[in-house]
Write a structure and sequence with these properties.
This protein has one domain: Jelly Rolls. Helices cover 0% and strands 54% of the residues. The protein has no helices and ten strands. Strands 1-2-3-4-10-5-8 form a seven-stranded antiparallel sheet, with no helix packed on it. It has a three-stranded antiparallel sheet with strand order 7-6-9, with no helix packed on it. Strand 1 and strand 2 form a beta hairpin.
Amino acid sequence: MENLKLLEGDDSLRLVLRVRNGRYSIVDLDMSKYVVSVTHLNPGQSTQGHEHGWEECYYFACGVGKMKIGDKVEEISMGQFKVVEPNVFHQVFNESLMTLSFVCVWNKGKEMVV
C-alpha cells in the first residue's frame, strides 16, 4: 500500500494512515481481529475497484454516491449499510460535489489486496 504511516498504537491496536492523495484519504484502525477503515472519497472520484476472499461491511456516514457490487450499481447515501460477499467485485463512486465518507469493516485473517 502507498503512504503507510503509523499514527499511533502498539502491537494490539494501531491507527495507520494508509493513503492520502487527490482521490481519497484512508485511515485504518488495525485491531487484533478486525480492521475498521475510514475513507473520505473526494468529489468526482471513485475507489479502486477490487475483490478478495472475505466479506466486508460498509457503513456510509456522510454524503451520497453509488456503489457497484458485482454487476449491480446502487445509489448510496448517509445511514446505509452494504455487505459485500467474498470474491465479489466492488467499487464506490462519488459523483456529488461533497466528500463521501464511509466506514468499512473486515476480519483481518487475510490482508487486503487491491
